[in-house]
Design a protein that fits this description.
With 379 residues, the chain is an alpha+beta fold. It has 3 domains: 4-19 and 191-265, Arc Repressor Mutant, subunit A; 30-185, no CATH class; 273-377, Aminopeptidase (3-Layer(aba) Sandwich), CATH 3.40.630. It has 14 helices and 14 strands. It has a 5-stranded mixed beta sheet, with helices on one face. The radius of gyration is 22 Å and the shape is globular.
């Protein structure tokens, strides 16, 4: 059997198309974007706009920050843990029951629970049942000796119950999460056998990736174990392929059953220049990013300042199907300004009037997302 070989140019186009980054973003269909991506990572850091808002805006340019909470309040999406805290389409709930159990086992007895005893968790459940949605500020347990990352007992207990699927996020006020009983947030769903959930998760991951290794399929949701993915791959209707990397080397992968149809219909990437969020799902796997695009990118917010090469929160610049640089920009909502501190172009990429104009247009669009009025360049 001849293995289908996918050139680097085609692999890039497939990858960007699968992640909604081929055509020019239009409209405000946040729900459609979340369904297509499978999940959107949540993050509390706000340099210009928080990661989840930025990711949605990159694909739906009329998206604005309040729209996501509206979807949460309408019960069209739910929050839980993939590789990190994320928002998922409510249609994923039947495949997510085992993930609640997996996360309950994973965090049970860990630092998340710690001194959060069964008595405390039952007290919290009783209060939420009787009083309605509550947030961490509605509880007053304290940490006796404050240390980095250490949390009060009630915070640990709330998170544990959230991971276990006994509590669910019902809405947010800013970044503050309000918890309610899961039975009052989640609709009744069909109870699928565990193997059905595993198969569904793996198939849904590969469908959204287009192609990937067994490890990449597992990492997509981070809701199945390596042995489970290997067993699924052995039995599933998948296509073995070889993918050409940016450096000309080839690696084995699996592709969705309709990979040839995707190859024949995948669009050319628009020449638009985009400012992507550091947590965008298209670039989350830095190893794969470098392999496919030759772009070496690291988030340096956890790197000591003296050792940073670029900066605390630096955004990749995607132009067409090529990463052409990175930009250090910061929003000031009180002043209404987006300050550009520095732009770095990749080797072989030359600034030009046309490229500068594309970057300026994207900065103006980013201002509108964050409610800022002007772009200013640092001296």
């Amino acid at each position: 059997m001849t293995v289908l070989r996918i050139s680097n140019a085609d692999a890039r186009r497939l990858w960007l198309s699968a992640h909604g980054l081929s055509g020019a973003p239009s409209g405000s269909d946040a729900m459609g974007v979340i369904r297509e991506l499978g999940f959107v990572q949540l993050d509390t850091i706000q340099v210009v706009s928080r990661a989840h808002h930025h990711i949605l805006w990159s694909r739906a340019q009329s998206y604005r920050e309040p729209m996501l909470d509206k979807l949460l309040r309408k019960r069209q999406v739910f929050e839980h843990f993939t590789h990190d805290a994320s928002v998922l389409p409510m249609e994923m709930l039947p495949l997510w029951q085992r993930q609640f159990a997996r996360m309950k086992r994973k965090v049970g007895g860990s630092w998340y629970v710690g001194v959060a005893s069964d008595v405390l968790t039952q007290e919290i459940l009783t209060r939420v049942r009787e009083e309605g949605p509550l947030c961490t500020r509605d509880f007053d347990t304290v940490v006796e000796k404050r240390a980095m990352w250490q949390r009060p007992p009630h915070k640990k207990a709330l998170e544990y119950l959230w991971y276990a699927g006994e509590l669910a996020t019902c809405h947010r006020e800013g970044v503050i999460k309000y918890y309610d009983l899961a039975e009052r947030v989640f609709p009744e769903v069909e109870v699928l056998p565990e193997q059905g959930q595993i198969d569904g998760l793996c198939a849904a991951a590969l469908d959204r990736l287009g192609f990937g290794s067994v490890t990449e399929i597992r990492k997509f949701w981070d809701a199945v174990d390596p042995a489970e993915v290997n067993a699924w791959a052995d039995a599933a209707d998948v296509i073995p392929v070889e993918i050409e990397a940016a450096d000309g080397t080839w690696s084995a992968a699996l592709a969705a059953p309709d990979i040839e149809a995707r190859l024949s219909s995948v669009p050319e990437s628009t020449g638009r220049l985009r400012i992507l969020n550091p947590f965008d799902p298209a670039i989350r796997d830095r190893v794969r990013l470098k392999r496919l695009f030759g772009f070496d990118y690291t988030v340096e917010m956890f790197v000591p300042e003296a050792k940073r090469q670029w900066g605390y929160y630096v955004y990749p610049l995607l132009e067409g199907a090529r990463f052409v640089g990175r930009i250090d920009a910061k929003g000031d909502r009180k002043r209404g300004t987006l300050t550009v501190n520095r732009v770095w172009w990749e080797p072989g990429v030359r600034p030009s009037k046309a490229r500068d104009a594309r970057l300026a247009a994207e900065l103006d669009r980013l201002c509108r997302l964050a409610g800022l009025s002007q772009v200013q360049w640092a001296a």
